[in-house]
């Protein structure tokens, strides 16, 4: 990779920190949501998670030993502002200050995500959280406090993580908080509020840290048309506008795709966009520094008849391969499985070339630098009696993806960073602790455990990748 490339790894506060009610932290929407029976695998919660709050120095030391160049982590809004706004929690901000200082001590570039899904429950109860435009100023107040606090220490910032996922699961499928089902008009209006919060924060950021780098992270699944039949080619075009460019175009251009907006207008669910909104989105788009990409899989698209599949289907959260179901938009598209690709135990397609495809598409369409803010393999890992974890399947997965990423760079994509998901094992939101992603095995399951850390084979593999700046990657 080019000199100065940021080899990294990533995490999210709710999934690793624990200490959910310690150090003055307020409750988050996730702290409440997981109390609902049946929402998570074996009723797992993030109350303890993998206890990063108390063990962060141990974890950062492991990162330093690996040679990590950047660590992407999120700040928990309710840990900093327990009520969403008002008084800052001194213990909460001190925790992040110490974490950032620990990274800097070892030469690890801190990359901060402002919002990775854990909304202060106080704001959810007060005005419905993201459903109200009131949240825009509360988010910007939170963001600007952090910009000012960590100016000079944090150079890379991500405003929002996977806006397309948390809004879809929160207002369409009821799988994430606030757990609402098929609220399509509200879903698009919520997204509009998130876009405005992102935009207003970007504008404020450039006033506070003019030389800093900021962008959003999008869960990007590039699409392949099923075949060359025009109806399937059209379905792919519509899918891209509704499921990818709806977000990417706003981040990069400051506007919604016209044909998608017209389609939603006809359905009566398009968001209300004022002239002031449009100007703000456009201003922020001119200021973003990079496109953050969370890449896991690609999607196949074919035409979906009016009486075809809906957006609502069973999602595989158990790890029993083949239990995920096909979804789609009636009369527009559906997403069948790809017969040419293997899948994980959670039915996610494994497509290393898709990462290269994503980079080339973003480069051609937006001409923005790229930060790969997440890429990784969730799998069932086993610890042997001598405390070894032989995850050759993860090494193969990551090697293949990094190889394709290097090809994308050779072909003209400007990629600044590659952050694996994740550094340690963690709570996988709906999937519990059995779905492991990390280079470091954490001794815990759905019932608990010692929380001791053990290096997997992939830890040493990535250590060599970083040491050689990618020269150790195999074709």
Automatic annotation (TrEMBL):
<dbReference type="InterPro" id="IPR018120">
    <property type="entry name" value="Glyco_hydro_1_AS"/>
</dbReference>
<dbReference type="InterPro" id="IPR001360">
    <property type="entry name" value="Glyco_hydro_1"/>
</dbReference>
<dbReference type="InterPro" id="IPR017853">
    <property type="entry name" value="GH"/>
</dbReference>
<feature type="active site" description="Nucleophile">
    <location>
        <position position="374"/>
    </location>
</feature>
<comment type="similarity">
    <text>Belongs to the glycosyl hydrolase 1 family.</text>
</comment>
<dbReference type="Pfam" id="PF00232">
    <property type="entry name" value="Glyco_hydro_1"/>
</dbReference>
<dbReference type="InterPro" id="IPR033132">
    <property type="entry name" value="GH_1_N_CS"/>
</dbReference>
<keyword id="KW-0326">Glycosidase</keyword>
<protein>
    <submittedName>
        <fullName>Aryl-phospho-beta-D-glucosidase</fullName>
    </submittedName>
</protein>
<keyword id="KW-0378">Hydrolase</keyword>
